[in-house]
Amino acid sequence: MAKIEIKVNGKARKADVDPRLLLVHYLRENLNLTGTNVGCDTSQCGACTVMIDGQAVKSCTVLAVQADGSDVTTIEGLAQDGKMHPIQQAFWDNHGLQCGYCTSGMILTSVEILKHNPHPSEAEVRHGLEGNVCRCTGYHNIVKSVLAAADAMGGK
Amino acid sequence: MGLDTFGKGIKRREDPRLITGKGTYVDNMKMVGMAHAYILRSPYAHARIIKIDVAKAKAQPGVLDVFVGKDMEALGSIPCGWSHPGLITPKHPVVAIDEVNYVGDPVAVIVAEDRYIARDAADLIDVEYDPLPAVIDLEKAVASREQARVAAAHADVHHAGAHHDEAAAGEAIEQTVGAEVKAALASQEAAGPHLVHNEAAHNTAFTWTIGDKAKTDEAFAKAAHVTTLRIRNNRIQASAIEPRAALASYDAASEGITLWMTSQNPHIHRLLAAAFVLGIPEHKLRVIAPDVGGGFGSKIFVYGEEIIVVWASRKLGVPVKWASERREAYISDAHGRDHVTTAEMAFDAGGRITGLRVKTLANLGAYLSTFSTAVPTYLYGTLLSGQYDIPTIFCEVLGVLTNTVPVDAVRGAGRPEATFLLERLMDTAARELKMEPTAIRRKNFIQPNQFPYQTAVALQYDSGNYEVALDKALEMVGYADLRKQQAEARKQGKLIGIGVSTYLEACGLAPSALVGSLGAGAGQWESALVRVMPTGTINVYTGSHSHGQGHETTFAQVVSRELGVPYENINILHGDTETLPYGWGTYGSRSAAVGGSALVKASQRVREKAIKIAAHLLEANEADVELVEGKFQVKGAPSRSKSWFDIGLQSHLAHNLPQGMEPGLEFTAFYDPSNFVYPFGAHICVTEVDADTGQVQIKRFIAVDDCGNRINPMIIDGQVHGGLACGIGQALYEEAAYTDEGQPLFGSMMDYALPRAHFLPSFELGHTVTPCPHNPLGVKGIGETGAIGSPPAVVNSVVDALAHLGVTHIDMPLTPEKVWRAMNAM
């Protein structure tokens, strides 16, 4: 077993875990943060995307011990003071989801896209989303949501 | 938001929970003492199981138990839900007993304290297999049958009175033909393909025909032109992003089991699992489908895994969960499509279709999945008239067993296959007849004054206006200009293609008596319970199930309009067999047309009773009371009124109800449609093919769809977008391909190419509205149209781009390699 301490959504969490425990399972099973989903097990679909130290990472191929000492944000930590993050709001306003299973990962990847490029073109959004698969929306409204969020955030 | 939401693209009420990570998917659920099941699967496509040694696995700390097929031998065979005359249904054990029939066939189940331990233990199970030859290729699988048919036809010449129906010849051989044929057959079989199941001669589970063979043959004999195509419709996988999952909890006190599972139709799952496989009374099994992360067909069917967790939970007395890995999903979720078809279309000299003749080999995989026998027959053969007035059609379908994952419905189910071959035939014929692709379609469209239109293949179309939709799509794309630009581009060596597809589908399945007479083991009605609560809010229980379609929003819009109750005050509940009236669930774009119509019917009954109560409270004649803007008021005296609160409360208090009236205010309605519904549309795809690499890029995609009246245009557009992505995926990227030995080449999302955001364009959508004349909402379906109309638009576009190089057809998926080979005539 290995001792880890990870700050998850602003709160320090200590645990003693099996060294092979995946971060996604640690978040889902140990911390009950089930907003992070598992879709493919191989980092292809992006449903398990979380932010580690401000960077979007696929938590299905990261060991919990690798995240020791880091700052993790999951979808549950994105809304502040009960108010949705502008990207979450944009997904709602623009019908950027259907079944919702890929949505957490899409939103967290979009946070990263807009952090690096606050005013992306449509093509840049599409390329930015290439590591996240959605089977419901055909991406049309996801792209629309990210572009709307970029406008709403005004380059923030 | 209030009363006036019908027809408006209001935001979905289910979204806030899903975008903040608060959805309840099955694998999110935990129970005290819960164990995890892991399933060991066959690495062979076809093999005898000689021995399974589970001792080492069983001895691992944390392993509760390990089960093999023999332990579950008493369970029933996983059933097929649609029968055909003469259908051969191989026994389908939940866990293989002495033979495995595809890579992925379950051979053992490990139940352990956590999923890591269970998976580790699986590696310690020693299975000794005796590999058998695998049957993979469709044409090879039935080769002996084809040889026998030829032999039988030959024998017919010599044996007067022998069977003349070629379609039935395969079955008739044993009874009617002589020793020479039998001998020939025996020698061919000895040398020919192996059998997946010994009971299915020639690997054929059924032979199905529709239409008039003699009349069609005659049309071909007289034809001025015949266009022939051999088409392979590629095998695909639904790939819902949420893998399937099931959690069963046995309650020893009641001897009842609750099963949470990823289901599109909880009642069907309960019925088939309880009655056919587990052999327990239905009331002992409660099936709950909470949030489901997409279905696309793959979560309709009864699979072994949900039976396994129920069985193991009962056996071990703890809750047991199974959650599919993606790798596992590819070899355990039913696949879709997979046809090999020869299609011929006869024309007169003026380009009018005079007949259609189709022969299809439909892959069923190793066992018959729940709807597998309906998909390539009633959902395919009956669609072969498309939007066209075709005087005679004959279609023969062979259901073929192979050592592959079972094949069943995937988004569109049968209709994409029918549309694809029709629209490829139309384009090919246009080229051969030197007609413009839109002109040949216009010439053959069923005209608005021909509705209701009886096709040559059973269906009676309800309403349609096909030319208007095509005109709209052509206008949106700027067709005439685009053709000029294409010619210019070609001079510069650029390969631009314009592909048109016009489609029609039958969905909103459909009269129960009719489908029953055709072999369905299911009814096709839907239920709704509308319950007015004491404070005038409404609880609605629907037999439809939402797994991304937004029913919580659209169904509330429907009830709000029917009852004049604010949208916010209507609560939609679904997905639990314990609390809902019986219903058949969501597939085949039936939720709005059938489930929504049931809502209207139940709402109308509620309204009628509410008016009676209001009239009584207002001391007015019932005929003088009307529901206006959510208030029950006396005609001509709007100040005399009662609210839904008043009616809801009084109906529950029952202090002052009309003489003899029962308390309460709720009705359950069952709506059985009188016909399918027939959405239609026109899709146009503009592609550019890279002259050096064969890479296809979609430049524009225009979809004009007509789904009748529109409840929520935003949700409709979303459904179209998703359907287009699935269809374009099938056309360009996706294929569940096997080696000749039956090894899958699609082990993960790294090998199975799903469309990603940068593969697709922004879609340009348009619509026309031709209401359905026979359901109370006037709605048709929209969930599958995108997947039906788009594949031929894409392929027609690529062939159009390459036609001047002599390319006439490329089978899907149009990978760069295939396209490059076609354009370089390799």
* SS content category of chain A: alpha+beta
Oligomer: heterodimer
Shape assignment of chain B: globular
Question: What's the overall geometry of chain A?
Answer: globular
Number of strands of chain A: 5
Secondary structure: helix percent of chain B: 25-40%
- Major beta sheet summary of chain A: 5 strands, mixed
The helix content of chain A, as a percent range, equals: 25-40%
Q: Terminal Cα separation of chain A, in Å?
A: 41 Å
Structure description:
The complex is a heterodimer of chains A (156) and B (826). By secondary structure, chain A is α+β, with helices and mostly antiparallel strands. In chain A, strand 1 and strand 2 form a beta hairpin. In chain A, helix 2 crosses helix 5. The termini of chain A are far apart. Chain B has a seven-stranded mixed beta sheet, with helices on both faces. In chain B, helix 9 links the parallel strand 10 and strand 11. About 2% of the residues of chain B have low confidence. The chains are: A alpha+beta (156), B alpha+beta (826). The interface between A and B is large, with 59 and 61 residues.
Summary?
By secondary structure, chain A is an alpha+beta fold.
Task: Give the topology, please.
The complex is a heterodimer of chains A (156) and B (826).
Chain A: E1 2-8, E2 11-17, H1 23-30, E3 49-52, E4 55-58, E5 71-73, H2 86-93, H3 103-116, H4 122-128, H5 140-153
Parallel strand pairs in A: 1-5
Antiparallel strand pairs in A: 1-2, 3-4, 3-5
Helix pairs in contact in A: 2-5
Chain B: H1 15-19, E1 35-41, E2 47-53, H2 55-58, E3 63-68, E4 99-100, E5 106-112, H3 115-122, E6 126-131, H4 138-141, H5 143-158, H6 169-176, H7 179-191, E7 204-211, H8 213-221, E8 225-237, E9 245-251, E10 256-261, H9 266-278, E11 285-288, H10 304-316, E12 320-323, H11 326-330, E13 335-347, E14 353-365, E15 393-401, H12 415-433, H13 437-444, E16 453-454, E17 460-461, H14 466-477, H15 479-491, E18 495-504, H16 512-517, E19 526-532, E20 538-542, H17 551-563, E21 570-574, H18 591-618, E22 625-628, E23 631-634, E24 637-643, H19 644-653, E25 666-671, E26 680-689, E27 696-706, H20 713-732, E28 763-767, H21 785-802, H22 816-823
Parallel strand pairs in B: 1-12, 10-11, 14-15, 20-21, 27-28
Antiparallel strand pairs in B: 1-5, 2-4, 2-6, 3-5, 7-15, 8-13, 9-10, 9-12, 13-14, 16-17, 18-26, 19-20, 19-25, 22-23, 23-24, 26-27
Helix pairs in contact in B: 5-7, 12-13, 12-21, 17-18, 20-21
